[in-house]
Design brief:
Length: 337
C-alpha cells in the first residue's frame, strides 16, 4: 500500500465538475428563541472549505497528485474566497471560469456543539453554471492532453451534462482513465464511461429502481441493470455504513466492509472515494486494491467534522487499525486489507 500511495504522486488528474464553497458557522445554543420554538445559537467562529468537485481536487492534492480543476464560480466575494482556498493548495482556477454574472454556490452549515442544526444553500439555475465544450474547447483540450486520469464530479448544478461527457470521451487520450460520480436525472445520459462511482441512492436510480428504499440493497440486480444500460467497465457503489460494493463484468463481485471506526460527518466522503479510486487506478492498482484504499480513506474522513481529506499517513494508520480489529483467522479473506 505504501508503494502504491507513493506511485500516485507521479500522476496528474483533471477534475471537471460543480465547485462550491462550504461555509461553517460554529457555536453553542443555551436557550430557545422567544420568537419561535427554535434554539438561539451564538456564533463563536466561521470557517470555510472548498466543496463539490473542488473537494475532489483537494483530496487528490492531499495525496500528493498534480491536479487541474475546471468548474464555474462567480467573480464575487465567495468566488474569491473559494479561489484563495484552492490556491493555498496549488490548485488554480482559470480566470475564464470565473464569471461576473454568476453567483458562487455556497452551502452554509450551522454547527452547534459539533452537530449540524441546518444547512443554508445559495445557488442559481443550472444555466448559470453551464460549461459548453465548444466555448471552452481550447482550455479543455490543453488540460486533457496533460491528464493521466479525468474525474467528472457531478452535483447536478449545471457543469456536467450529456454533451460534456460525450465531448470529453471523444477528445481524451485513449489511455486516459475517465471516472464519473453521477447525479442521475432524466436529462443526463452516458455510456461506456470506464469507472462509474454512485452512492446507494444514485445506483438505484441508475438501475431504474429509485423506489427501492428497503434496508436490503439488491446488489446483483442493480449491477446487472447498470452494466446493461450504461456499460461501464468498472462500477463501485458506496453504501455508507454498509461499506462498498465492487462490480465488474456485469455483476456484483464483492462487498468491502466499512473501515470507519467512528463516524462524525459523512460530508464529502463520496469525493474522497472517487479521488482515491481514480488515483490508485491511474497509478496501476487493480480495482480491488483501489477500492480497498478508497474505503480506508473514506474511513478517515468520516471520523472528522466537516468536509475533509485524508493524508497518506492517515490512510496507512487506518489500515493498521483495521488489521488490528480483524481476527487472525480472517485476515486473508478477499476484500479485507
Amino acid at each position: 500500500m505504501r508503494t502504491l500511495l507513493h506511485n500516485m504522486t507521479r500522476c496528474r488528474v483533471l477534475v471537471i465538475g460543480d465547485i462550491l464553497l462550504d461555509r461553517y458557522l460554529w457555536g453553542d445554543a443555551e436557550r430557545l428563541s422567544p420568537e419561535a420554538p427554535v434554539p438561539v445559537m451564538r456564533v463563536a467562529s466561521t470557517t470555510a472549505a472548498a466543496g463539490g468537485a473542488a473537494n475532489v481536487a483537494l483530496n487528490l492534492r492531499t495525496l500528493g497528485l498534480q491536479v487541474d480543476l475546471v468548474g464555474v464560480a462567480g467573480q464575487d466575494a465567495d468566488g474569491r474566497a473559494l479561489a484563495a482556498l484552492l490556491a493555498a493548495q496549488q490548485i488554480t482556477l482559470d480566470p475564464r471560469l470565473l464569471r461576473r454574472a454568476c453567483t458562487t454556490i455556497v452551502k452554509t452549515r450551522v454547527m452547534c456543539r459539533q452537530q449540524q442544526l441546518c444547512r443554508l444553500d445559495v445557488e442559481r439555475e443550472a444555466e448559470e453554471y453551464t460549461l459548453a465544450p465548444a466555448k471552452f474547447a481550447p482550455l479543455l483540450t490543453a488540460k486533457l492532453a496533460q491528464a493521466d486520469a479525468i474525474i467528472l464530479s457531478d452535483y447536478a448544478k449545471g457543469v456536467i451534462s450529456s454533451e460534456l461527457i460525450s465531448w470529453v470521451q471523444s477528445h481524451a487520450r485513449p489511455q486516459t482513465l475517465l471516472a464519473l460520480a453521477p447525479k442521475p436525472r432524466p436529462t443526463l445520459a452516458f455510456r461506456d464511461v470506464p469507472l462509474v462511482v454512485p452512492n446507494r441512492t444514485e445506483a438505484l436510480a441508475l438501475a431504474g429502481l429509485p423506489g427501492v428504499a428497503a434496508p436490503h440493497f439488491p446488489a446483483d440486480e442493480v449491477a446487472s441493470r447498470i452494466f446493461a444500460s450504461h456499460q461501464p467497465r468498472m462500477l463501485v457503489v458506496t453504501l455508507g455504513a454498509a461499506g462498498m460494493l465492487v462490480c465488474r463484468q456485469g455483476a456484483a463481485a464483492h462487498r468491502i466492509p466499512t473501515a470507519a471506526r467512528e463516524v462524525f460527518d459523512v460530508c464529502g466522503a463520496g469525493d474522497t472515494v472517487i479521488a482515491m479510486l481514480t488515483a490508485a487506478l491511474a497509478a496501476g492498482a487493480t480495482l480491488d486494491q483501489a477500492a480497498t484504499l478508497a474505503n480506508l480513506a473514506a474511513g478517515v474522513v468520516v471520523g472528522k467534522v466537516g468536509v475533509a481529506t485524508a493524508t497518506p499517513a492517515e490512510i496507512l494508520a487506518q489500515l493498521h487499525s483495521v488489521q488490528g480489529h480483524v481476527a487472525p483467522a480472517h485476515r486473508d479473506k478477499p476484500g479485507r486489507p
